[in-house]
Amino acid sequence: MNYRFAPAFISHAFTPFYDFVTTLGGCGKSLQRKVLKHANIQNNERVLDIGCGSGTLVLMIKTKHPHSYVVGVDPDEKILNIASQKLAKNNVGVNLIQAFAEKLPFEDWSFDVAVSALTFHHLPTEIKKQGLTEIYRVLRPDGRLLLADIGKPYNLL
User: Fold this and answer.
1) Predicted confidence (pLDDT) at residue 77 exceeds the cutoff of 90
2) Is residue 40 classed as helix, strand or coil in its secondary structure?
3) Distance, CA of 78 to chain centre
4) So what's the pLDDT on residue 155?
5) pLDDT of res. 33
6) Closest residue by Cα to residue 22 from 53, 48, 63
7) CA-CA distance, 112 to 144, in Å (whole number)?
8) Reported pTM
9) b/e string for 24-41 if b means 16 or more Cβ within 10 A?
10) What are the percentages of helix, strand and coil residues in the chain, rounded to 5?
11) What is the DSSP letter of 114?
12) What angle do CA 16, 17, 23 make, to 5 degrees?
């Protein structure tokens, strides 16, 4: 299935305002803190953030668990640039990779934990299924996934 990728907020023109808008809408750092809490990440675990966006969650994970290996993936090069700048400003080392959820560039069983916040509602059902299949593939047999998202909107509001 082919689908057309759309950046967060539909246009790259709004990408620089991503953190501000998500915080204003109640889906910024407060949501990321809840995801971090419920993911129950331990030091030395290998963690993958699918749809890492501006890097808020990967920054929180690596700051709280400095001995964990953390990778963020997102298909949007512009939002990854913002994430990279945020990580550099905080002197935090996280690998950021441009990739889609349905085509993860990792070996089988590469991660202990996968998290995804506010990503899957952007994807058509078939791509969601492919993405979950990929996540299952890259998680270790005892690995875990925490997916936090909203439902697809029915109108602009």
Assistant:
1) yes
2) coil
3) 14
4) 66
5) 82
6) 53
7) 7
8) 0.85
9) eeebbeebbeebbeebeb
10) 40, 20, 40
11) E
12) 140
